[in-house]
Amino acid sequence: MPRLIEHLVEPQRLLLCWQARESEKRSRYQVGELIKQGDDVVLRYSSGSDMEAAKQAGFKGYPAFPLKQMEHKHQVIEAFIRRLPPRSRRDFGRYLELRAIAPEAEISDFALLGYSGAKLPDDGFELVHPFDEPPETFEVLIEVAGFRHEAEVSPKALQPGDTIQLKPEPGNQYDAEAIRVESRGGKLGYVPRGHLTMLHRMLQQGASLSGEIFRINGTSERPLVYVLVQVVRASGLNHNPVKLQA
After folding, report:
1. Cα separations (Å) of 71 from 109, 127, 200?
2. From CA 91, how far away is CA 73, in angstroms rounded?
3. Given this model, what pLDDT does residue 239 score?
4. Cβ atoms 61, 89 nearer than 8 A
5. Can you tell me the distance from the alpha carbon of 41 to that of 34, in angstroms, rounded to the nearest whole number?
6. Which of 161, 143, 141, 159 is nearest to 100 (CA)?
7. Quick check: helix, strand or coil at residue 215?
8. Strands (E), 91-183
9. Which helix (H) or strand (E) is 29 found in, with range?
10. Does the pTM of the predicted model rise above 0.70?
11. Cα–Cα dist 82/104, whole Å
12. Nearby residues of 84 by Cβ (< 8 Å), 6 or more positions away
């Protein structure tokens, strides 16, 4: 059985990302944040170049929360929780396991939105845990971006538990902060943009990263690969994880 997340971190905010599925590059953009304010959750849209690029790619806001209003407070958490299956489902434990979370884990709805991504098949939205105040060691499950077009290794050659390597690509023509994911001597794809800021922040703080393939699924036309990345901050280095290589 693949390893599961051992250190759950309760977030105070989540990044709202959107993928332009109709564009040729299928680019991802950070378009907002869900922010805890006491017992409430606020949706705050982003401003700046990423939002402008998203609008040009067709972004029109999250349903029921129009872009003409930059901040929304009414029924925000309720709207996003509908992206998760009800906890009363008999297979809810399996849903958690597929997202590297132990079925018996105590996890809030807000944290589950971040750890699961809360993705649906038809709208391009994803929620990302930013790990603003992480412990010395924590884990994050990441779907490899671009596997369908970038992979140099067949999904049939991969197995859960295979070690991965994470390699920065500062010369990448599309994103100087790109981090390439490799396994079995070939490229699998890239770390999605929503996770890049956090991983680079951890590296700047002296953290070490290691990882392994968690699961391979999807279809033959659109295979999906998920990797479980462990982050060990400098003060918690007590083993020999694989470090990022330049």
Report:
1. 21, 17, 28
2. 32
3. 44
4. no
5. 6
6. 141
7. strand
8. 125-128, 137-143, 165-168, 179-183
9. strand 28-37
10. yes
11. 21
12. 109, 112, 113, 116, 118
